[in-house]
Amino acid sequence: MKLLFDQNLSPRLVNSLTDLYPDSDHVFNLNLDQASDNEVWNFALNRDFAIVTKDADFGDLSLLLGFPPKVIWIRRGNCSAREIENLLREKSHAILSHRNDLESGLLILF
Questions:
Q1: Within 10 Å of residue 69's Cβ, how many Cβ atoms?
Q2: How much is the pLDDT for 23?
Q3: What ranges do the domains of the chain cover?
Q4: Which residue, 54, 31, 55, is CA-closest to 43?
Q5: CA dist., res. 37 & res. 4, Å (int)
Q6: What gap in Å lies between CA 91 and CA 83, rounded to an integer?
Q7: For 40-85, what is each residue's pLDDT tens digit?
Q8: Could you give the angle at which helices 56-65 and 37-47 cross, rounded to 10 degrees?
Q9: Nearest-CA neighbor of 27 among 15, 85, 44, 19?
Q10: DSSP character for 70?
Q11: Is the separation of the CB atoms in 83 and 62 below 8 Å?
Q12: What is the pLDDT of residue 45?
């Protein structure tokens, strides 16, 4: 599963999670860090990424527009990139199952 990390997450996650989520990227690396949510959404849609974010806006877009792309919404307050990495590792089974779920476009992780 290719993950597209939103601007509110560390770009370091791309390298630290490459073993589980190869071909993932960060909006900053793709010059999308100043792009609108709709532009990020369309980029993810056209390139088969799931969006990983701490921003409620992508969850709202998922409910409005449906999927793809899939959205993984991290609902934790201030936390380190290491804590996010650990969460994405711990929940890797749920994330990979989410990719194949035909009923849901939004996965919320606490």
A1: 23
A2: 97
A3: 2-109
A4: 31
A5: 12
A6: 12
A7: 999 999 999 999 999 999 999 999 999 999 999 999 989 999 999 9
A8: 60
A9: 44
A10: P
A11: no
A12: 98
